Amino acid sequence: MTAWSAALYALLCLIWGSTWLAIKIGLVGIPPVLSAGMRFTLSAALVGLVLAVRRRPLRLTRDDRICVLLLGLLVFWLDYAAIYWAETRISSGLTAILFSTMPLMTALLSSVWMRSEVLNRRKLAGIGVGIAGTALLFWPHERVEPSQALGMVAALGATFCAAINLVAMKRYGAQSDPFVLNFLGMSIGAACLVATSAALEPWTSVAWSRSNLLALSYLSVFGSLVAFSIYYHLIKVMDATIVSLTTLIFPIVALALGHIFLGEEVSATAVVGIATVLAGVALATPLSRFR
């Protein structure tokens, strides 16, 4: 890993670690799917402006079209709809923790589906430990409400969508322009999100505030335009599993910010579950692979 890639990696962890809090704040007064749709409508417009300034053509190869469809449908629609909905039912920190299982899903998909990485004993052990940690999060000592359980399932579903996209991008997107992919993917995802919201959510309940406007702006510019550009650059120069390892850092940032700004608490059993999940991910994706 070069110094430049390491710096981008750290910046990505910081930005996306903070987006969980921003999503939670942005949901105050705005239905979840609509909030996600507005975010990516604005983000797509910003990325489109960048492409216009760069005078970048939108010519797509067959592999580009595959990437755009997967990105638009799996990530910007299904993944983010589930994430935003989950954060209406569970804390931002817990959502980030569940999303940190992405390297385990990525390792499985890379080995079984794409056959681009070897599923050795260490990875299998890490996956098993990670599953045990996730089980602890689902069955703490205190009672879990049905709405919370559904929120956790939604977060895991979102994680699976993101893992499929990451592995596919590694295979099909090596020569693609990340700005073109983001612009078209965000446009498709935003259209799907807004259509879904129009069908399922009451827009009359929208209440704008300074806080949710600032959160929307931050998520659109930094959480989308900047972060996704870094993300897809890193996919081109690193293993898919290593890129997904950034999700180990997200929960630390998310938990700290959630506690500081929203007063979110984590139970003792959940702490054990969190530590177990992170240990499983670290075991499945050892740091020696960075060398």
Gist?
It is built from twelve helices and no strands. It is mostly helical and 291 residues long. It is globular, with a radius of gyration of 18 Å.
Layout of strands and helices, then pairs:
Layout (H helix, E strand, L loop, with lengths): L2 H24 L5 H23 L7 H25 L5 H8 L2 H11 L8 H18 L7 H27 L5 H23 L9 H28 L2 H5 L4 H14 L5 H17 L7
The proportion of residues forming helix, as a percent range, comes to: over 70%
Secondary-structure element order, as H and E? HHHHHHHHHHHH
Uncertain parts: 287-291
> Average pLDDT across residues?
85
The tally of helices reads 12
Let me know the number of strands: 0
Spatial extent as radius of gyration: 18 Å
Strand content: under 5%
The biggest sheet amounts to: none
Distance between the termini: 7 Å
Q: Name the overall outline.
A: globular
How many domains?
Answer: 1
Strand pairing plus helix content: what structural class? mainly alpha
Can you put this structure into words, describing what you see?
By secondary structure, the chain is an all-alpha fold. The protein has one domain. The chain has helices spanning about 5-25, 30-55, 60-85, 90-100, 100-110, 120-140, 145-170, 180-200, 210-235, 240-245, 250-260, 270-285. Helix 2 packs antiparallel against helix 8 (about 180-200). The longest helix is centred in the C-terminal third of the chain and has 28 residues, at about 210-235. The termini are close together. The model is unreliable at about 285-290 (pLDDT under 50).
